[in-house]
Amino acid sequence: MKKRVAYQGVEGAYSHLACYSQFPEYETIACKSFDETMYLVEEDKANIAMIPMENSTAGRVEEIYRLIPKMKLFIISEYYQPVNHCLLALPGTKIEDLKSVSSHPQALAQCKAHIEKYNLVARAKFDTAGSAQELIDMQDKTCAAIASSLTAEKYDLEILEEGFQDIKNNTTRFLVLSKEHIVPAFHEHQKYITSIIFEVRNIPAALYKVLGGFATNSVNIIKIESYSGSGTLTLSQFHIDIDGHPDEANVRLALEELAYFASTVKMLGTYIPHSMREILQA
Question: Which of 128, 151, 172, 270 is catalytic?
Fold first, then answer.
């Protein structure tokens, strides 16, 4: 049976493009929400999910960070998708005819300067390709959408301007999620990222001591995010990404200190960094 990858959006969305680029042999399943995307994997109706985490121009995807503490899936890899936004409209439309443009809030943020240049009213929609699909139903030449060239091809829309994003090296980081906790074998010269969710104990300087354990063991923390945990405003959960594999001696020692000062610890996944990560961080 052909393997399946689930994504949020409609055909032509950037998540669909990322699925096609990374897993061309997989069948793709379009979902209405991120919750549905993850649910399909949890219920074995899809093998993996492709989820956008952050963009190099507009920052993190807020909804995903709210779902991470609750999700039952594990991170098995990351993928960086270059984003080339296009200004799309009905055939025969001219830029001077436009009054508004719609797209996902992330895409609108990534194209803010160009939207202001043409004095367009920005309208937030659920996804990029969905906003383009709406143009077909509306048949209004004063409206445009921001989406991919794949979307233009699929819905027979005209590309009024390519490279509509404000920053040309615009890239979105995706996570690949699986029901299985697949940890790659440790090899000495290979780089790894390990993602962890933990809740600190309610004692003085607990977070300081947790972070100190990584510092004293020379483990680099790439990212840290905080959430209100356990349904209270007094305890916090933290999501960290670190350089390293749990089987490395220094990482193992840091994790032991984490376990001592944390009330709960969940390993979200260990995976090999995508090749684009170093290029974007250079």
Answer: 172
